């Protein structure tokens, strides 16, 4: 994701909600790949820690599935800046829905 001032908060840095959305999208996309044809999912919780302010450049979200059970899945995501530094870490739990 390319960062510029349109994503800034009033303090002049990247709004945390934007990083949260990036992490949520990465984790959700990752988890989606595990679903069967008759399954869907919903997010149960989402947690993020902001470790370093971001003002410009590119961010990369790297998500992984830590545990995929019959009813719940747990994912983690690291958001890195262009220098490869960790700027945020997120985790999420999803519930699997059958239809």
Strand content: over 45%
Summarize model confidence as the mean pLDDT: 96
Tell the overall outline: elongated
Low-confidence stretches: none
* Secondary-structure class: alpha+beta
Order of helices and strands: EHEEEEE
Q: From the coordinates shown, what is the CATH architecture?
A: Roll
Q: What is the makeup of the main sheet?
A: 4 strands, antiparallel
Number of helices: 1
Q: How would you summarize what this structure contains?
A:
The protein is an alpha+beta fold and 99 residues long.
Task: Note the main attributes of this structure.
single chain, 99 residues, alpha+beta, Thiol Ester Dehydrase, Chain A, four-stranded antiparallel β-sheet, 1 helix
Describe the structure.
There is one protein chain. The chain is of the alpha+beta class and 99 residues long. The chain has one domain: Thiol Ester Dehydrase, Chain A (Roll), CATH 3.10.129. It contains one helix and six strands, in the order E-H-E-E-E-E-E. The protein has one helix spanning 16-32; strands spanning 2-3, 39-50, 57-58, 60-68, 72-80, 86-98. A four-stranded antiparallel β-sheet has the order 2-6-5-4, with helices on one face. It has a two-stranded antiparallel sheet with strand order 1-3. The longest helix has 17 residues, at 16-32. It starts with a strand and ends with a strand.
């Amino acid at each position: 994701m390319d960062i510029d001032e349109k994503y800034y908060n009033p303090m002049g840095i990247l709004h945390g909600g934007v990083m949260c959305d990036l992490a949520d999208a990465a984790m959700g996309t990752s988890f989606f790949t595990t679903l069967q044809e008759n399954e869907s999912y919903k997010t149960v919780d989402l947690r993020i820690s902001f470790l370093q302010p971001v003002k410009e450049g590119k961010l990369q979200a790297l998500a992984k599935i830590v545990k995929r059970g019959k009813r719940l899945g747990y994912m983690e995501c690291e958001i890195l800046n262009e220098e490869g530094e960790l700027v945020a870490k997120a985790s999420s739990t999803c519930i699997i829905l059958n239809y």
